Amino acid sequence: MLLASVRKRLSAAGYFGLQVLAGGLVLVGAGWLFGGIADDVVDGEPLTVLDAHTAAWFHAHAVPSVTQCMLGLSAMNGIAGISILTVLVALFFVWKRDWYWLLGLVLAVPGGMLLNLLIKFAFHRQRPSFIDPIVTLSSYSFPSGHTLASTVFYGMLAAFFMPRVKTAKQRVAILLAALLMVILVGLSRIYLGAHFLSDVLAAFAEGIAWLALCLMAVATLRRRQATSKLAA
Questions:
Q1: Would residue 28 count as lying in a domain?
Q2: Residues 208-229: tens digit of each pLDDT
Q3: Is residue 2 in some structural domain?
Q4: Rounded (10°) CA dihedral 163, 164, 166, 171
Q5: 3-state class (DSSP) for residue 126
Q6: Alpha-carbon dihedral of residues 222, 225, 230, 231, nearest 10 degrees?
Q7: Does residue 35 belong to any structural domain of this protein?
Q8: Nearest Cα to 21, choosing from 151, 225, 215?
């Protein structure tokens, strides 16, 4: 009995260590990517030239039917749309009495949105400009708020559901579904002329880094409280 208990604790500690290591690597990698993109944007590196060409290409090839789809996708995954979805998921966590995931959700989504707003004011980058714009926005462009909100929200859902399915294929499917949603949202913002490509890429990197940090923080809190209960 004692040996089984020791093995169980060592296994749990090992799994927690792997979680922290993986989260740390993701955090560092995504943070490095965001820093590189931000540096290119500030210094006017070739990435900004690609930004201009990409924005012009999408604007020149806009089709009314596709535009309506992109407008709808963008609206559903905007700040208001993601906020409504977040409240619904939060109510689900309250119903399940899953307070750790509720805390993670609150830190990741509203916290990520606030972080993104602060970064926007730090960089104060202007949005793409066209003679006949599809959408007109006066707020700053870098990084994309829609992409950030989608990354942390769908990323949080993926993190919640992936450990709860039985097969690796199901976990991969959940991860790919979350990634596809983020890509579509980011693409809609570029298509509509609301953001440059670098705005979307930076927001994705920012969102991944912030999500990893939030998940690690909640996992550490859960681990400490579990350890405290065992010690008591």
A1: yes
A2: 999 999 998 888 888 777 666 6
A3: no
A4: -50
A5: coil
A6: 140
A7: yes
A8: 215
